[in-house]
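Q: Could you fold this chain for me?
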Amino acid sequence: MRFGNLTVLAVRMNPDLSMGEDLLKKTRIGNLFSIFGQPDVDIRRVGEGQLQVEIRGLDTYKPTNGEIVPQSTADIACWFIDTAYDNRQFFVRHAYFLGDDDPYDKLRRALRADIDEAAWSSLNSTVSRPFRVPDSGCIAIKVINHYGDDILKVYGV
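A: Sure. Below is the predicted structure, expressed as C-alpha cells.
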C-alpha cells in the first residue's frame, strides 16, 4: 500500500494472534505489532568522494486508524549505517545513539567506567561522520525505536 511517499507492506497475522476488539487494551503494551514506514534522512555529499547522513526522524504507519505519524529523533533509540551495503547482509559500520534522556549516563553506569565524552558525542548525534562513497552504490540505514521496533531502508547513492 502507498500513503503519499510512504510504502506500507501488508502484514498477514496468524488467526491465533487475532484476539478480537475487546480482549487487548488499546495501549502500546497491548499492540502485537508495530508497523514502521521509513526513516526521514538527508544524504549529502561532503568533500570529494564523501557522504554524510542526517536523520531527521521517521514516519510510522498506525494500522489501527490508517494514519501516518511523523516522529522526531527523540523517538529513536539508535540508528546504524552500513556504508557499503551489498544487498545481502547488513553490517553495522556506523552506530549512533539518541533519545530524550541521557544515553551516555546510562551507558557509563552500565559499564561502570568513564567514557571519553568527545568520542561519545560523535556517537550521540543525528548527523553521521563522513564516509567514502561505496563502490556498491548502496548504503542501508537501520533505525530502532525505544520499543525495539526496527526498520531497514536501502538507498542508492
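A (continued): The chain has three helices and ten strands.
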